[in-house]
Amino acid sequence: MPYGPFETLAETRAAALYERLRGSDALVLACAEAGVRLGRFDKRVVEELGQLESETVWVLASIIRRAGAVGS
Q1: Mean per-residue pLDDT for 49-71?
Q2: What is the pTM assigned to this prediction?
Q3: Structural domain boundaries of the chain?
Q4: Is the CB of residue 58 less than 8 Å from the CB of residue 30?
């Protein structure tokens, strides 16, 4: 269950502890796994999003991963 969907903050925190990546690194990896190419401006936005609280970033990364899995 590390990639959701998540129903509670506690679930998200537990999943985030599973992965050692934090901040924008988690988002960049999720994009790569989903086959999303990032341009310069995309990377800038990802860096800004990486500054959000870790649970929020983890949920965003999870959504990207799940969306990529649906498209495969």
Answers
A1: 90
A2: 0.82
A3: 9-71
A4: no
